[in-house]
Amino acid sequence: MVSLSEVRAHNASLKSLPAGLVAVFVGGTSGIGLFTARELVRNTTSPTIYLIGRNATEASKIIEELRTINTSSQVSFIQKDVSLLKNVDEACREIKTKEKQVNLLFMTCGYLTLKGRDETAEGLDRKFALHYYTRMRFTNGEEDAGGGEGEGGLAAYGGGVWEDLR
User: Fold this and answer.
1) Cβ atoms of residues 83 and 117 within 8 Å
2) Across-strand partners of 104?
3) Is the pLDDT of residue 66 over 50?
4) DSSP readout, 8-54?
């Protein structure tokens, strides 16, 4: 396991990246997505951050916090229930109209249930949609917005057990 000091050293090295990185956080209003967005904003120069989620009230608090951490950051919220693929497509289109590239796609949206199948309005199982279809759709939808050779980054992570390391 990587030590906390190694993580902090790596985070500090992010300052050497070019200014104006564009990052999309799907499920970035809580948990590991939020903590990662916070550290990216803290450790980069003039980042553009898109938070995609359902909770606009929570997102407005997070946006205020991130702008306080880094006054040169541009932070936006796109309110979407990404268990619906049409909403994923809409979010991708919205970002593509504003950005020529996406440097980081960080996906931690998830759904935990012990009951059986829970269908979305599109007829898909909600858990499977969030853990598979949504991730594939964002990956395919954002790949055209990737940077030039060596400039893009893509991360598709499943949220898991995490611990507040502050």
Assistant:
1) no
2) 23
3) yes
4) HHHHHHGGGSPTT-EEEEETTTSHHHHHHHHHHHHHSSS-EEEEEES
Q: Is the pLDDT of residue 149 over 60?
A: no
- Classify 80 as helix, strand or coil: coil
How far is Cα 113 from Cα 117, in angstroms, rounded to an integer?
A: 9
Cβ atoms 78, 109 nearer than 8 A: no
Burial of 54 (0-12, 13-18, 19+ CB in 10 A): middle
Angle at 78 between CA 76 and CA 83, to 5 degrees: 145
pLDDT tens by residue, 100-125 = 999 999 998 877 778 889 899 999 98
Q: What gap in Å lies between CA 144 and CA 84, rounded to an integer?
A: 21
Residue 5 has pLDDT above 50, yes or no: yes
- Specify the 3-state DSSP secondary structure of 29: coil
CB-CB contact of 148 with 99 (8 Å): no
- State the Cα torsion 96-20-41-13 to the nearest 10°: 130
Domain 18-82+97-113+124-156 fold is Rossmann fold (3.40.50)
Contact status, residue 136 vs residue 142, Cβ threshold 8 Å: no
165, 164, 131, 150: which is closest to 26 by C-alpha?
131
- List C-alpha distances in Å: 141 to 83, 88, 135: 15, 8, 10
